[in-house]
Specification:
Elements: E1 3-9, E2 26-27, E3 30-31, H1 32-42, E4 47-52, H2 56-66, E5 71-74, H3 81-86, E6 98-103, H4 111-122, E7 127-133, E8 142-145, E9 151-155, H5 162-165, E10 169-178, H6 179-187, H7 202-209, E11 214-218, H8 230-250, E12 254-255, E13 268-269, E14 274-275, E15 280-281, E16 286-287, E17 292-293, E18 298-299, E19 303-304, E20 309-310, E21 314-316, E22 320-322, E23 327-330, E24 332-339, E25 344-347, E26 350-356, E27 361-362, E28 367-369, E29 379-381, E30 386-387, E31 392-394, E32 397-399, E33 404-405, E34 410-411, E35 420-421, H9 433-450
Parallel strand pairs: 1-4, 1-6, 4-5, 7-11, 12-14, 13-16, 14-17, 15-18, 16-19, 17-20, 18-21, 19-22, 20-23, 21-24, 22-24, 23-25, 24-26, 25-27, 26-29, 27-30, 28-31, 29-32, 30-33, 31-34, 33-35
Antiparallel strand pairs: 2-3, 6-10, 7-10, 8-9
Bound molecules: uridine-diphosphate-N-acetylglucosamine and magnesium ion.
Uridine-diphosphate-N-acetylglucosamine (UD1) binds at residues 8, 10-11, 51, 53, 75, 78-81, 83-84, 103-105, 140-141, 154, 156, 170-173, 199-201, 226.
Length: 451
Amino acid sequence: MSVATIILAAGMGSRMKSDMPKVLHQIAGAPMLVHAMRAAAGIEAQKTVIVTGHGADLVASVAAEYDETVLTAHQDAQNGTGHAVQQAADALQDFEGDVIVLYGDTPFVQPETLQAMLDKKAEGHGVVVLGFHAADPAKYGRLITTDDGRLEAIVEYKDASTAQRDIDFCNSGVICANAKLLFSLLDAVTNDNTSGEYYLTDVVGLARTRGLTCAAIACDEAETMGINSRVDLAAAEVAFQIMARQDAMENGTTLIAAQTVWFAYDTVIGRDVIIEPNVVFGPGVTIENNATIRAFSHLEGCHVSKDAIVGPYARLRPGAELANGAKVGNFVEIKAAQIGEGAKVNHLSYIGDADIGAEANIGAGTITCNYDGVFKHKTEIGTRAFIGSNTMLVAPVRIGDDAMTASGSVITKDVPDTALGLGRARQENKPGLALRMMNKLRAAKAAVKKG
Ligand code: UD1
Ligand code: MG
């Protein structure tokens, strides 16, 4: 059976106190909306419709950056969750399968949980609702269930009796039903309630009046965490990081001080990788087996191959690609550059827009001068080349295989294979001059003191 998802993302999120729509605030380097989109991708949803409202154009364009196949539907006025879901009806007009309603501000619902809902629905229920046993049920809608596990109704807190408010089984908001059925039930929903809104939750009672059964399944409360404020956002970040650290360690990564390592939503790490304290991952990082990321390094958009060593205090920026056994040491920045197998850039260097051959050694303080103020230019360094300390490589420039540059050189012309490039003033020694100059200066100082 094919499945579609509808992600509600129309709310303003006024408690965020932000000019940016709430669902675009980031957790682990991705907008919270994208976390929900990834849950949809995790059950191979054929179609995903994002219901936008506040900041609709921006929300739609950010969503498309991550998945250009997503559809959007616009909700002009926020008349309730039922009304919001109805806006997706046109986009899903020809869709025959099941649909799951998700929320752009509820980023942690897991694909396995959504699959469990689909499985439950396949047992023959009209509507399946995702619930959780709340530590503090507060203002959540309450799930009214029978002893044999059927769901009879969802009662909003505002509309609930005192006895109903004692129930701790709460509505996460996530709902699964056949698409055609869902939209037909929504057509019958009214706004005759305390809030004057069209409640999505009313589809449960309506399905039952049509002779269909409904069911609720429970998930961990952590999955249903919703974000309404910056405090919630910070708590969500921590919750994400705790999960990501746990996953990394369970998959064979050593984290020496797990609480100090910050992952991105998409970090991929192999086995027997060691990550030292205080390492931060931005989006788009992959690390192969046996690599070591030493303390205080920052990595984003980069690939680190087997046995490579990065840091301490290294910065790998987008497009940095380290081959097997490459070494990037302290206070080194690498951007859009390939570092060949076994090559070393160990100290105080900037390597940008460069291709560095296998076993090359880049001396301390080497800079690729890649930018002329308008264009970026490329530096190529051959296999086993040896770049002397404090070389300025003024790109575009090529250093050949087995070539060298003299320390302190400003290299503006290609250096052929096996040649030594020397680009600095020739040294001259003046015998005795240092001492004569010093004596003169000391005498001058003594004269001033005497006055
Ligand atoms: C909803 C549920 C409640 C559940 C709770 C879980 C209904 C009627 N109630 O209540 O049972 O316990 O979520 O958090 O569904 N939205 C739109 N357009 C709208 C209204 C809402 O896009 O017109 C979006 C909001 O941006 C938000 C989500 O839907 O992301 C939920 O809306 P919200 O108003 O927070 O619903 P609750 O009252 O919390
Ligand atoms: Mg809410």
